[in-house]
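Section 5.1 Outputs to date
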Amino acid sequence: MDGAVDSQDEYTIDELAARSGVPSRTIRFYQAKGVLPPPRKRGRVAIYDSSHMERLDVVGQLQDKGLRLRAIRDIVARKDLDSGAIQKWLGVGERLGHLSEDEPKLLTEDELKELLGNPPAGIIARLVRRDAIQVQGEGAARRFLVESPALLGVAMRLMAAGVELDVVLGLHDILERRFHKAADEIVDYAIKHVGKGFGRGDNPDDIMALLETIFSDGAGTDAIRVIFTREVQRSVQKALQLEPDPSGRRAGRRR
């Protein structure tokens, strides 16, 4: 076959794809993104070797743990990358998943009512219609999946204070959209500064210790609460000062 290689440790891109189970187009994509090192050239034929096979395996493991390609690129570029270092970085991903105390729950109807504080009739049906909770199973086997018991508890507190359910869910949607974008920016910024002002070092143990301080010790929650409270106060003051009333005067200026 034209372009074939003799050594078992050398592969064309099609051979690498067949052995690794990663499509050729994905291998080329990984190269373009800096996740996979470029192949050697033998004439016009691209030659891959066992290091590329190992790298594809590492990338697959990291993706299985939920890491994004940008983070994987930074990890595999490390000079200390070996099997031990890989397992430590994989461990960071696993430990991150346990930092949140707000885990999904599958509840019976009675358990859900208890969680909601015995809500008024119709609330559960409305939550289901809005996908705030999901129904699984039928009849006696019916259960309710609550993705975030903590958020559901917050929603019930707001409703008890006089906020309608649809308004509560609308506020949640706004916060989720904004925090999603903010979280991406914060993580991107932090990754760029790992070991350079973010963390005492750039190894997995140092980064995990810092993340546990941010999440488990409440530093991150406190920062969000303080910043968000100040910004809401600023926005409320601005709205009260600028909102016109029918008389033409500013509502915030009336005596």
